[in-house]
# Entry
Amino acid sequence: MERFFGLAARGTDVRREVLGGATTFAAMAYIIVVNPAILAFAGIPPGPGTVATILTAAFGTLLMGLYANRPIAVAPYMGENAFLAFGLAALGISWQQRLGVVFVSGLAFLLLTLVGLRGSLAAAISPSLKHAFAAGIGLFLALIGLYETGIVTSAAAGMPAAALLAPGSELLRAPAVPLKIGDLREPQVLLALFGFVVTTTLLARKVRGAILLGIAATAGLGLALGYGQWPKAVVALPFAGELSLAPIALQLDIAGVLRLSLLPVLLTLFLMGLLDTLGTLVGVGAAGGMLDERGDFPQIERPMLVDAATCVFSGLVGTSTSGAYIESAAGIKEGARTGLASVVTAVLFLVSLFFVPLLEPLQALRYAYAPALVTVGVLMLGQARLIDFDDLTEAAPAFASLALMVFSYSIANGLTAGLVLFPVLKSLTGRAREVRPGGWILAGLCLTYYLFGLPH
# Structure
């Protein structure tokens, strides 16, 4: 393992890698339950969807460990799955065609990566923007954690439906205030606060496995108090009965999506996947000190190739667009630095195939895993210190990325806003030479997202 993964060269050992891989799995295993539940709205059966989700995560993460040698997990993306399930509902396209869109966009990723264009595009992003991506993703993770735990909730929560109707209409209006503080006396909210305090305290004391210990302690306390359901079964055989993959594997409709009317769908999913991966790699790279002096991710082509291959695999087995997972930062904060951690995470996903009945109720304990996302968000926010706030042509695009990422609840919206604004401000201030050719390409792609895609 030392020779294959280069543990000593990256200042790590087997124990740290195993712990980091297990922590990443614990932080992102909710995808086993959440992704199939979302894709069910698109018509994909939950049982087969669960198996497809696990297989995709295991395939991509194992490939990331063995080929790219990075401690970064890969799985179906949150956001892209909602886009497939809800964003395309009005178009009336079948789930087979939606899987076809995933496959075709994956092939486009693969082609761009093989010709080296994705790496060039990543290198064209300014250091300030890259640090803003990392800080913004940290805040985005924190918002997800706060909302999942109920510490922060929608301003519409608890209001009668009639109060949300626009006058003289049956349409819902936006609340005057989008968010509000949750019910801090609610037991599960208090459990989440307990989890955040415990995890942060353990991290401050530099206890190994702090995040994983925080998740376990909070889950144990919550179950002991009766907040959560014990599993009805422990083991179930995958690829059989309700967990058979046959209803969705290789059922994608490729020919049905290769028409002009679906070009905005392909464009949107392509750009979301491309930019989410760029932002995630920069974010986790910053969390683990993997970036070079300019803020670039070394040998970024390898993890991008893994990401592209996994997208193709996703469409074939029957799930949504996949890519590098920002929750990998949880394992990286525990000391993971090599692909061995990814191998551990992948093995845990494979093992979970046989324990779907056991994991399903456990992964519904949002009060246990969501505080870890808030803690990781706190740790990643430090990247904002490296943004050049003295130069408005750097600070304004960075702020736009960070703000829109959080306030529009979309990593893709934040990335595109910053990438468009950066060359515009540089040009208007007579500093267009500071924009690399790849920067203009990215700006053009991002403009097409807003003009012809389906931003959400």
Remarks:
- DSSP finds 19 helices and four strands in the chain.
- The longest strand covers residues 74-76.
